[in-house]
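re: the backbone from monday

yeah here it is again, tokenized this time
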């Protein structure tokens, strides 16, 4: 669901490149499948497919769970917020330690 909101936000802001990384391979595969998804989350998957067309370059890829720590921390933070917020340019301080660690880790 968050990716659909993110794609709408990207379209409204005129962002032309959108990268979304999931740690669940089934979601990535379903979002790239040309067939209509009839599963219990099919409506969300179909929304992702349609909204991806509104952004010039939308990439949806799979990453391991360990590489998704910043997203998990932001998701937890969102549960404590009263309203939506966005960061453009600099990342929020709550994930800086994870980003620094990720940048200094060997591939």
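seq for it, each position gets an aa:
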């Amino acid at each position: 669901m968050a990716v659909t909101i993110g794609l709408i936000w990207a379209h409204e802001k005129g962002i032309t490149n959108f990268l979304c990384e999931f740690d669940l391979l089934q979601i990535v595969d379903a979002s790239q499948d040309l067939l209509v998804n009839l599963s219990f989350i099919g409506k969300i998957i179909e929304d992702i497919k349609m909204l991806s067309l509104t952004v010039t370059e939308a990439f949806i890829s799979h990453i391991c769970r360990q590489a998704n720590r910043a997203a998990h921390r932001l998701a937890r933070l969102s549960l404590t917020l009263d309203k939506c917020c966005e960061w453009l340019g600099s990342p929020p301080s709550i994930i800086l330690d994870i980003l620094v660690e990720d940048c200094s880790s060997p591939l």
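The chain has a mean pLDDT of 88. Residues 2-104 form a domain with the Nucleotidyltransferase; domain 5 fold (CATH 3.30.420.10).
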